[in-house]
Specification:
- There is one protein chain.
- By secondary structure, the protein is of the alpha+beta class.
- Helix content is 51%, strand content 15%.
- The chain has 5 domains: 201 residues, Hypothetical protein af1432, CATH 1.10.3210; 157 residues, Beta Polymerase, domain 2 (2-Layer Sandwich); 77 residues, Beta-grasp domain (Ubiquitin-like (UB roll), Roll); 92 residues, no CATH class; 76 residues, Alpha-Beta Plaits (2-Layer Sandwich).
- It contains 29 helices and 18 strands.
- The termini are far apart.
């Protein structure tokens, strides 16, 4: 009976999919889609998802997203229906090829995960992502279907264990949401970000969602009064248009609150209005957009620094629109987005929509071609480390960009924060390698100078110049980083081999056991965690043979045995005293009493009560990061299988260093008021403090020892009530 009910549900979902295949209406295409469905349905027969529903509903949902939300065609629908068959059943890529053709088989192969990797230190997640990207330059549909697959998994993530939720959400925020942005899929990118936030920071997500819902109800009257005069003018001008209120996404609000250290009520551009219109015949599209802009600014005064023209120079992902922020009724700033219907479809469906308009989008397709050319160049580089590949690919997914000009006026798009050296490598690899300086707007600058939108850049080169090691510290593009690393890769290998030989010779000459324990303790003596870095330092002569010999003799064989016996005894006694907690994948909280090797990351400095992620690194050490930390996101995206927990609740009354920044109007006694509240009222021990005052304005920072987030937030609220103080916020990273 249950099987019959499942079959009815499956058929209903498939019929819904067929109805959404607007680009696949021919009988021949429908027959191919039905054939793929029947094949996949039989292959996954009897298999259930974690939610308890038939597994085939997942491929059907992915196929529907691919066609109705991204706009893909028949081959993509078929590939979506088959995307898990090779991975989860006994069918092979060859079987898919013989039944559905080599192109569908190639797409399915690109979407099929790698089941295992050869090295223990290699990240399976990173290897799988590299495999997907390897097919990117040949067929964009692999990435687009993968995004559809990820979106449906995120929509149904509630049925997964907490550990899996954290891993998948972190991975999505780190790589898939930026990838959706780069492909121009704004709607999908926003939903992926919101869903990631929902599982990363559930309480913050719920609070912001409630406030946005309340804001929408409260501001309906404001929206109506704002658009009334615009409606009249657009109708009188003969435009066929729609005006809608565009509510900010939960993630964008949360990000702005984190980035600017402000509260929800301090965000002034929560309300945005979108105007989408049909272009009139025999009139240039661009001039019509500016005409609509003129109609709006005739009614409301614009904010000059908030005008964005992405029609003259579209974004790298193809986005085109005019944005202007105007002063609306009741003294409220309102952002207005102006798009034609073509621009709107491209903004929502990205590069998939370009195929529909490819007859008049040569320049916009050029942006895609430039991006794919960068990816192809990256793929041509030998990349043994999948994690390094993942990081380099992430650099190609920049979400904030600048446009700069060559001396001849050609445009180059670079990520925000790019330097003159990044620009040099963007022009040509050899220009980057030989770069010694630049002229920005006719002014001589260093190669590390950051560029701004609108800069005109001329690169100065010298034949005697060679890439320098410190260049890697200030370039921000994948192309620049790859070329610099490639230059030194050969030298690095030579130094590693030389160091290995020197180490081996010293060990043999001094009759010391040549094993992993010897290497481990030698590395610890010189404070190295990576053995290649250790060997390379020896090879370059920075650790002398005599220093190495003395260190190895000092830690002789008997001490090695004692050391390892001690470590074994420690671990054995710990095992008797403490329950094993890492096997419980559903565990949602941990504290300091559960683990021995516990390190609080200095890059984000979490304290008890923060939303954190704990990752077990390759040395077996548990490292705790804040979930807001970019490094934490990277670890979740790369080592999701090693995540141990999602909350930090310490039962011990331990103190942790926290830092706050304070600013406001200077007055006599304000420093005393601050220290009194911290030290006397809250009994908090101050570690250090600094205050500066200039022209009646002061700012400062205070480091102190705190027990948990709750105590810290209570303290911050109390400090904000001091007369003259404007802002108090926590600093996440301690130097």
């Amino acid at each position: 009976m249950a099987e019959m009910e499942d079959d009815i549900i499956v058929r209903q979902h498939f019929d819904d999919l067929l109805a959404s295949c607007k680009r696949s209406l021919s009988e021949e295409n429908k027959a191919l889609i039905k054939k793929a469905f029947e094949f996949a349905n039989e292959a996954h027969k009897g298999v259930k998802r974690k939610s308890g529903e038939p597994y085939i509903l997942h491929p059907i949902a992915v196929a529907k997203i691919a066609t109705s939300e991204i706009g893909l065609g028949t081959k993509s629908v078929i590939s979506s229906l088959l995307h898990d068959v090779v991975e989860d059943t006994d069918y092979t890529v060859e079987d898919i090829s013989s039944l559905f053709g080599p192109k569908v088989a190639s797409i399915v192969d690109g979407l099929t995960k790698i089941s295992e990797v050869s090295e223990e230190t290699t990240s399976l997640q990173a290897e799988n992502f590299r495999k997907i990207v390897l097919t990117l330059s040949d067929d964009l549909r692999v990435i687009l279907i993968k995004l559809a697959d990820r979106l449906h998994n995120m929509r149904t993530l509630s049925s997964m264990p907490v550990r899996k939720q954290v891993k998948i959400a972190g991975e999505t925020l780190y790589i898939y949401a930026p990838l959706a942005h780069r492909m121009g899929l704004h709607t999908i990118k926003s939903e992926l970000e919101d869903l990631s936030l929902k599982y990363e920071h559930p309480s913050e997500y719920a609070a912001i969602q409630r406030k946005l819902d309340d804001f929408e109800i409260e501001n309906q009257e404001l929206f109506n009064s704002f658009i009334e005069p615009i409606n009249t003018s657009l109708e009188n001008s003969g435009y066929d248009y729609t005006i809608t209120a565009r509510k900010k996404s939960v993630f964008s609000v949360w990000s702005k609150m984190q980035r600017k250290r402000i509260q929800f009520d301090e965000i002034y551009d929560l309300l945005a209005v979108r105007i989408v219109f049909e272009i009139k015949e025999n009139q240039p599209e661009k001039s019509q957009c500016w005409n609509v802009y003129s109609i709006i600014t005739d009614k409301y005064r614009p904010k000059p620094e908030r005008i964005r023209d992405w029609i003259s120079i579209p974004k790298a992902n193809g986005y085109e629109a005019l944005h202007v922020t105007v002063m609306g009724p009741h003294g409220r700033w309102i952002e207005v987005q102006i798009r034609t219907k073509r621009m709107h479809e491209i903004a929502e469906k990205g590069f998939a929509a370009h195929w529909k308009y490819k007859t008049d989008t040569e320049s916009r397709e050029g942006e895609l071609d430039k991006w794919l050319a960068n990816i192809r160049e990256m793929l041509e580089e030998p990349q043994p480390d999948a994690l390094e590949f993942l990081d380099d690919f992430k650099l190609n997914l920049f979400t904030k960009e600048i446009t700069v000009f060559t001396p001849k006026g050609d445009i180059r798009t670079l990520p925000k924060g790019a330097t003159a050296l990044d620009f040099a490598f963007a022009i040509h690899t050899q220009i980057g390698n030989k770069c010694i300086g630049a002229k920005v707007n006719k002014q001589l600058v260093s190669i590390s100078s950051k560029l701004r939108s609108g800069d005109q850049v001329e690169i100065i080169t010298s034949e005697s110049q060679e890439p320098q090691r410190d260049w890697i510290n200030f370039v921000g593009t994948a192309k620049a980083k790859n070329n610099i690393k490639s230059h030194f890769k050969g030298e690095r290998k030579e130094m590693v081999v030389a160091g290995m030989q020197i180490f081996s010779d010293v060990v043999v000459e001094n009759n010391i056991a040549p094993n992993s324990q010897t290497l481990k303790i030698a590395m610890e003596h010189f404070d190295y965690e990576n053995k290649d870095d250790f060997y390379r330092t020896i090879g370059r002569g920075k650790i002398t043979i005599e220093a190495l010999r003395q260190a190895l003799i000092k830690t002789n064989t008997s001490k090695f045995i004692n050391y390892w016996n001690l470590r074994f005894w420690d671990r054995s006694s710990d095992t008797q005293k403490k329950p094993k907690t890492t096997k419980d994948n559903n565990k949602s909280e941990f504290d300091l009493e559960d683990y021995d090797d516990f390190v609080i990351s200095k890059c984000c400095n979490p304290i008890p009560g923060d939303d954190v992620v704990a990752v077990k690194n390759e040395n077996g050490t548990i490292v705790v990061h804040s979930r807001m930390c970019p490094n934490g996101l990277r670890l979740m995206a790369s080592y999701g299988d090693k995540i141990l927990a999602s909350k930090w609740v310490s039962r011990k009354l331990m103190s942790f260093i926290a830092e706050i920044k304070i600013s406001g109007m200077d007055r006599m006694g304000i420093t005393n008021d601050i220290t009194r509240i911290i030290s006397k009222e809250h009994m908090v021990n101050i570690k250090s403090m600094r205050f500066d005052s200039e022209n009646g304005i002061f700012d400062g920072d205070v480091q102190f020892y705190i027990h948990n987030v709750e105590d810290l937030e209570t303290l911050i609220v109390k400090l904000r009530k001091i007369k003259g103080i404007e802002t108090v916020h926590r600093v996440d990273c301690l130097d």
